[in-house]
Every structure is written in structure tokens, then in C-alpha cells.
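user: can you give me the structure for this one chain? C-alpha cells are fine.
assistant: on it. calling the predictor now.
[tool input]
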Amino acid sequence: MQQELNRLESTALEELSRTESLAELEQWRVRHLGKKSALTIVLRRLGSLSAEERRKIGARANAVKATLQSRFDEKKSALTSRQLDESLAHSTLDVTLPGRPQPYGRLHPITRMIGEICAVFARMGFQIIEGPEVEYDYYNFEALNIPRDHPARDMFATLWVDHKDDPNARLLRTHTSPMQVRIMEQHKPPLRFVVPGRTYRYEATDATHDWMFHQVEGLAVDTDITLRDLKETLFEFCKSIFGRDTGVRFRCDYFPFVEPGGEVAIECVQCRGSGCRMCGGTGWLEILGTGLVHPQVLERCGIDSTVYSGFAFGMGVERIAILRHGVDDIRHFYSGDFRFLRQF
């Protein structure tokens, strides 16, 4: 058995000297140091020997194993170093190049648009307030001069949570105007705030309509507020968002909760007032509705309409974003297409 160990050692060392790659080295390790190697078999046979022979053969077998393991480690280190040198010699890696940039997140374009709109009004002293998206019929309609039999309800394709004939029926708010009433009920004038948020309507989805969209509602109530205050505030807003050289136009319109009511339009961003397909040849694009708060709305909230007056306005954020950035389809904003979103 002593001769067998000597033969195993010399054979293994000779094969190791001819090994030229890490793959061949691994095969050598399995063959000479693995669980099924000849050396392992010799170690397992020690139990059948006498105590004296077991001591001598065992010591020799462990010495052979230690020698092979040591030579294996040296060979592996040498081959690994040689492989690295060869790789560097044939590589075109420029270690002075900067690393690959990691992608980073950004705010959704509608979120950014809401922030920009609110920032304009914040500079004019308006507070930013949010409200519930599930609203009561009273706040969404009744308190805003839109009773159950009012024809103005037809323009709001309402998504009801409860049956609409329920006196306390709940719904997904169709506009952010309900917060006007909630704030006026809880706080006394002077008031000045804007309310951004999601609104919902049961409408068919197309390039200009969606069942969910964002609005920003605004309200100012104080003594001696006039139509001039309304116009100056919205003039400043339009020019801050669309540019100082943008033309702004006011026209009369109807909303049940304001009197008088009006709409604000800006000079067409595409044709600059000369008339095109985008503006229907008029040269103007409507962007928001506005008006002086109806006295009945003030009185219903416990505010004396003979002392206080106010103005309100509301706009669709997606429409502002579409006109600002030249987007041709509102559905792009919620498609989840990174090719579109990365442009903002």
C-alpha cells in the first residue's frame, strides 16, 4: 500500500504539470482529490489494517493528500493569474471611461402640470387644499345650485356609488367644486384656495375625453371682490403658464353656481390667432370656466352675500397639458408608454 501511495503521488503530480487550463485543473481535482479518487479509496481501507500499519500508511496517505492539495492551490493561482493577464492583453477596455448612467424616475407629466398650476396660484396667495373623491350628492350638486330636477345635471355623466334617489347618495365626484362648499362651511372669509384632484365621469374614451381626469378648482371670497379681481388673477395665470405674449379672452358662459359666468380662452398655440384646424378656425382655445360666486351658494354656507363676494374657476389639467406640450391624444398620458413619458 506504501508503494501504491507513492505511485498515486507521482502520477498525480505528473498530470498536474501538464495541466494548462482551469477546466483541466478541475478535472484533475475530481480525479485525484475527489470523493471517488484512488487516494480516498486508500484512506477508506485503513480500517482493515493492523494498528502499526494503520499509523504508518495513514501518515503517508495524509502527507500525499496534503502535497496534492498544496500543489493544486499553487497551480490554480498561477492559471487564474495567467488567464487574467491574457484577458487584459486582448481586451479593449478603457478603465478611464465613465460608468453607465442608471435610469432614474421622474414625476408623471400630469403631476408636474398640477404642481406648476398650483405654484402659480400659491405665488398669488392661494392655499392648496385636497378633498374626497367619493362625494355626497349634496356637495356635488345640491349645494352648488344644481337640484335634482335641474337640466344642468345632464352635462355631468355621473358614476354613482349609491342609488341616485337616496337622499344621502354618494358618487364619484364629477368636478372639484364640492370643496368650495366644504371650505366655506368650515371657515369664514377671507378665503383663497385652489383644489387639485381627480374627477370622474361616465364618458366614452376618445382623443379628448377620458372617464378619469384631473381638475384644479379655485375660490376667493372676501369683501369687495369684483370681476376685475377675477380677470387679473386669471390673466396672470394664463400668461405664467403659456407665456407673457399669449393673448387671453373672456366670454360669457353659464354655470349654475356662478353669476355672471364666463369662459377663458387663450390665443391658439398653433396658429397664434390666424385660425387653424386645432382651434376650429376661431384662433382661440378655451381652457377654463369661471365666474362670480352665486349669492345663493354663499348664503347656503352661512356667508352674508350682502357683505362678501367671491370668484371661482375650474380647469382641466389634461387640457392645459395637451395645449402646453402639443399632445394630440389624452390617452397617451395614461397608456404607461415610457417612450411618451420620457419626453417630459
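assistant: here you go. Residues 2-90 form one domain. Residues 51-90 form the longest helix (40 residues).
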